[in-house]
Hints:
By secondary structure, this protein is an alpha/beta fold. The chain contains 17 helices and 24 strands. An 11-stranded mixed β-sheet has the order 9-8-7-10-6-11-12-13-14-15-16, sandwiched between helices. Strands 17-18-22-19-20-21 form a 6-stranded mixed β-sheet, sandwiched between helices.
Amino acid sequence: MNLEKICEKIEYKLLRGSMDIEVADVIYDSRRVAPGTTFVCMVGAVTDGHKYIPDAIKKGATALVIQREDALEEYADAVDGADVTIILVESTRRALAYMAAAYFDYPAKKLTTVGLTGTKGKTTTTFIIQEVLNHAGAKAGLIGTIENVIGDEHIPAKNTTPESYEIHRYMHMMVEAGCKYLIMEVSSQGLKFDRTTGIEFDYGVFTNLSPDHIGPTEHPDFEDYLRCKKILFNQCKTGIFNLDDPYVEEIMEGHTCNVVTMSLDEGTEADITADNISFIKEDGMLGMQFDVHGMMEGHAKTHIPGKFSVYNALTTVAVCKCLGIEEDAIFAGLEEAQVKGRVELIPVSDQFSVIIDYAHNALSTRSVLKTLKEYNPHRLIAVFGAGGNRSKVRRYNIGEEAGKLADLCIVTTDNPRFESLSSINEDIKEGLNSVGGTYIEIDDRKEAIAYAITNAEPGDMIIMLGKGHETYIEIEGLRRHFSEHEAIWEIMDDIYSGRRIMTKGTSIL
């Protein structure tokens, strides 16, 4: 593609060379520079792409996009005499977003785009929306924390919101795969660092807000975090807002979009509401049910437990209604939807429940365990560990929360990384002991799960915390394959075949 065409949406100053050249690709990672490519010198929190100018020229880049003109003096030995076009922009991050959109022929305009932002619930809700759309026969792609889904292809995610080039590449692939919709998690970091700049979302969704991602490499304070979240509602056509969140007015301040509102509070005037909320506990399955009123009417059911899942479900209903999906298809898809590793029920028995969840800090551990306690289990059994080379206080706090809420904790392996398992588990046990928690320790995670299942009693809820969708355990820098989903069914096969015994006599399916 012609460089001038790629740069048609950005303001720039041509410092040398010609814009009338063909470009093989737009590259922001110097390791991927090849002859004929344009290298965008991205400036980040960790590194400055300008320092790779000599390497990019050596590898055959025919154009450079820079935001520091002094870099030409710094790397004059490489630049002088090189047959390379150089253009100067105010921000290379913003430039990359617009250039990527042009390079891939503006794929966002060929899809109906839905972007979700908020602190909690983004991952689960994006998957539910995608599942409901696919269930209704409307092919949808997904970009998010766990993975990026394009037709039948599942690409593991590195960031909640990828770099702008990857976003447009994925959208282009979705168009090629016949997708009509894009459902996307839009993180505060993605908004702050211009990864979604230039995309006009058809729908933007605000789920909720609480202090998070505050630190030297993310947001300096909560005000910056909130400010970045607000950006989405100046780059979407319609905003869907959770009126029950205490920060909703601040999020909506200065918005430029049409507004759709939702609420679980009967006294709140919203476009779509939920009431008659109740818990479902049937045949080893947990969930919620509620009535929907306002822009559509009906009875909804979800097999994802907890009141927070009603917000996720109502958000899904609101989005899919705005997208024109038939109401019967919305309710049917909602009932079928499950999200891998997010309070995911594994149907091993109708007498006890087995659940996988990604909770790996004190806040999320407390949240999921309190949710399950609302179903009044006979016993709540938590199987968990903690990550190595992470805060010792975090481990203590996880142990403390689990010790207060679970009837039995089974302390085991998570991702030890470069730290000893015994050292990690001592920190967890210190937290457990501080609240008088009941626990045992089984280092092998599969055997820890097996102990929980083979010792299950009728009405028990067993939850594995910390791994969720992950399919590995990281030890000494190596990721060894481990899937809790696979481990559970291998254990069940052992029980069916008699290699393991249900010690309490509890029946299984």
